[in-house]
Amino acid sequence: MNNSVGNAGRLLWAGLRALLVLTVVLGVLYPLAVTGIAQGLFHDKANGSEIKDASGRVVGSELIGQTYHLPLKNGEETASADLKWFQPRPSNGLGSNSVNTQYKIILSGATNRSADNADLIKWVTDAKAAVIKDNSTADFKVKPSDVPADAVTSSGSGLDPHISPEYARLQVHRIAALNHLTVAQVDELVAGHTDGRILGFIGEPRVNVLQLNIALKALVSDTPAKS
Fold this sequence. Notes:
It is built from 7 helices and 5 strands, in the order ααββαβαααββα. It folds into 2 domains: about 1-45; about 50-220, no CATH class. The chain has a 3-stranded antiparallel β-sheet with strand order 3-5-4. It starts with a helix and ends in a 5-residue tail after the last helix. The chain is mostly helical. Helix 5 (about 170-180) crosses helix 6 (about 185-190).
């Protein structure tokens, strides 16, 4: 009887010691080590790849897209795009009945509709017509063949923060006209914010819309207003 109680006590004490040691090692030391390494070597990425504006205020993440809309007017259910800013690619996400319709990160995903789906065809057709209309100016007319695929389709996650250089350049004339800038100024801005392929061969050239719009805001602020 005494041996049984003693053995049980030793087993319980061994289990308790193992629990305490593993709690300290895996629950305290390991998280602190990983956090310390991440903060020391990858501080920006560990904190969400934050993007700050000229004043140092965090305005978003370089990993997640966002919209640039005008305030809702009375009776409107969907806000109109603020065309003074570069626009991202559509963010239909999982469709109009989901929570992810405008870069909301509660849920992300693609529409999973096939290329011949009537709803998808209508979305793309309507988006293409809007891109042509919005980006045509008095001295620049957009042709249907000018519209790149990313201007009318959402990404697989619906949260893509990038657009193609082609889509960014398509918006240059509109941006220049609405912000009283020259086309050359805006072209230079796009070129300066175009990232090449990773390591020279992975992926495609891309433009981060938020970073480009922050630079656009700074350029507009530094450019004297025309009377």
